[in-house]
Amino acid sequence: MRHGKKVNHLGRKTAHRKAMLANMACSLIEHKRINTTVAKAKALKQFVEPLVTKAKTENNDTTAASTHNRRIVFSKLRNKYAVSELFGDVAQKVGDRPGGYTRIIKLGNRLGDNADMAMIELVDFNEIYNAGKPAKKKSTRRGRRKKSDDAKPEASKAETSKSEEEE
Fold first, then answer.
1. Domains of the chain, start order
2. Region Disordered: start and end of each range (predicted)?
3. Which pTM value belongs to this model?
């Protein structure tokens, strides 16, 4: 029975697994998209999404809290260039997203050993998926219609009736 065993060990000991996930996360942050196996992609998703959330909350916090977040992320990634990229470009791009910063796309099987392959990418950095969609404007759930919107159709009706009378 596997009660309470949430971590996929990926056939590695703890130190090897942590080092591998840190390296893969740094590559993902640097290149915005990497190819790997499906199991590693799922493990990487669980590893990197909390780090992106910590980077995103830096803009709202005070400097002491943001320094603390940077140190926590650095302790996981162990790469200062990846940390600066994460807290810079990536945090700005995903600032309004409430979660789900990565996407896993299955690619088929690897030729050598028939392993299931996948591409994991940062969602906001894919121009192919985002090109067709216009930027969503913020809307509230319970908004009222403005009175100026109601007045405009009436004015246009009056103008059309005047032009018909002149003819």
1. 14-139 (3.90.1030.10)
2. 131-167
3. 0.75
